[in-house]
Design goal:
Layout: E1 2-8, H1 12-20, E2 27-31, E3 50-51, H2 53-61, E4 78-83, E5 88-93, E6 97-98, H3 101-110, E7 117-120, E8 122-129, E9 134-140, E10 143-154, H4 161-166, E11 174-184, E12 191-196, E13 205-210, E14 213-220, H5 226-239, E15 247-257, E16 267-268, E17 271-273, H6 289-305, H7 310-317, H8 319-335, H9 338-347, E18 351-352
Parallel strand pairs: 1-2, 1-10, 2-7, 4-12, 10-17
Antiparallel strand pairs: 3-6, 4-5, 5-18, 8-9, 9-10, 11-14, 11-15, 12-13, 13-14, 16-17
Helix pairs in contact: 1-6, 2-6, 6-7
The protein binds flavin-adenine dinucleotide (FAD).
Length: 356
């Protein structure tokens, strides 16, 4: 049997594409995580789990609202920016929604119509282009299998195997390693904290509370020394009076940081990329969920019109999304230069006073 579309990855981008593809297509979604078994909560995506206004807007455009069990406390209305390099601290108003990322992903999967086949706990190993179809190899619950499709979509995130196989000669976005440590907490922190410290990373670090847990995270380019850099961060925040209670979890994941539009790859023949696999993520804030939702829905729209020439349509329709990443790239040049950041923060523009 030949599928019309096989999607690798059931994160926000893959789940959105699977939900929005026309019923006329025979669609299969594959994920190595067990995303449709409620008893098996063990492979959560390492993520801050903050839904930015852009992601909220896309959900609204989809006609979706969040179920309450996906939302976690506290809901935070501000970011506390700690600039260690310049010894400045400021508060800015922000409108995030704090979610349980595992439950968010499972909720998106639950919206996929029944005509789409799901193969979970199934690892994509590789593909071969045949004369008419693409043959893919998977490891499905411990057994090797081969499947055929007309279009293959890589929605398999920052370390995308589909991307590596399809665009092996192209330059990928920088890959950062992100480490997150989860600590027990008995105090409520009403702010999302962002930390700028060149000794730790040229990107940023964060503290986010999820109910009675506090996440401390950092995205670090220098991965051979990532553990030492992370320890510098822990010590720095302790020096600033931040108390970390008992550590309950440590996790890691790759995260992309595109530096030019050339690093965003969309399609080659009948292989397409969406979400972070394609390079769709903000280089200034690492916000990736809105781009994943948008790129998934744009590709669905293009394929629904016709499977022929879907790629060129996809390229055209993602123009605004790619320009948006370019703007974020320019913003990041200002934000991550300690002199311009100092100037901006010192002026106090857009910052606010907070009672402590
Ligand atoms: C530490 C960290 C914090 C972040 N915080 C935020 C945040 O607060 N807000 C925000 O908007 N963004 C955040 N991001 C970015 C965001 O998580 C991603 O950009 C977003 O999840 C991308 O969605 P996606 O669907 O493209 O890929 P993913 O969500 O990564 O999903 C990829 C899917 O593919 C599956 N997969 C991968 N390889 C295979 C394979 N070989 N076979 C089968 N299945 C496979 C995975 O199991 C996964 O389900 C963060 C990222 C990191 C790393």
């Amino acid at each position: 049997m030949v599928y019309d579309i096989i999607i690798i990855g059931g994160g926000p981008s893959g789940a959105t594409l699977a939900r929005m593809l026309d019923e006329k297509y025979k669609v299969l979604l594959i994920d190595k995580r067990n995303l449709n078994d409620e008893t098996n909560f063990k492979c959560s995506k390492c993520c801050g789990g903050l839904l930015a206004p852009d992601a909220q807007k896309v959900l609204a455009q989809f006609g979706l609202g969040l179920p309450k069990d996906v939302i976690v406390g506290p809901q935070m209305f501000s970011v506390r920016s700690i600039d260690i390099d310049n010894n400045i601290q400021k508060y800015y108003q922000r409108h995030y929604i704090n979610v349980d990322r595992e439950k968010f992903d499972r909720w998106l999967i639950s919206l996929i119509p029944k005509n789409v086949e799901l193969m979970t706990s199934c690892v994509f190993k590789g593909y071969l282009e045949m004369e008419n179809n693409i043959e893919i190899e998977v490891f499905n619950r411990g057994k090797a299998e081969k499947l055929s499709t007309k279009i293959l979509v890589g929605a398999d995130g920052a370390a995308s195997k589909v991307r590596r196989m399809t665009f092996e000669d192209d330059k990928s976005p920088d890959l950062y390693i992100s480490i997150q440590e989860w600590y027990e907490t008995t105090k409520e922190s009403p702010h999302f904290i962002s930390v700028f410290d060149e000794e730790v990373t040229d990107f940023y670090s964060w503290v986010i509370q999820k109910e009675n847990r506090t996440i401390l995270g950092a995205a670090i380019l220098d991965y051979p020394n990532a553990n030492e850099k992370f320890q510098i961060l822990v010590n720095r925040l302790k020096e600033k009076g931040y108390k970390f209670e008992k550590r309950v979890k440590r996790e890691g994941a790759w995260i992309m940081r595109p530096r030019s539009l050339k690093q965003i790859n969309l399609f080659k023949g009948n292989v397409a990329l969406i979400g972070e696999a394609g390079g769709f993520i903000s280089p200034s804030s690492a916000e990736g969920i809105s781009y994943a939702l948008k790129s998934g829905s744009i590709l669905a729209d293009c394929i629904n019109k016709s499977m022929k020439n879907y790629g060129l349509k996809y390229k055209r329709k993602t123009f605004k999304l790619r320009m948006n990443i370019l703007v974020k790239r320019l913003k990041s040049l200002l934000m991550y230069n300690k002199f311009t950041r100092k100037l901006i923060m010192k002026t106090g523009v857009l910052s606010m006073e907070v009672d402590r």
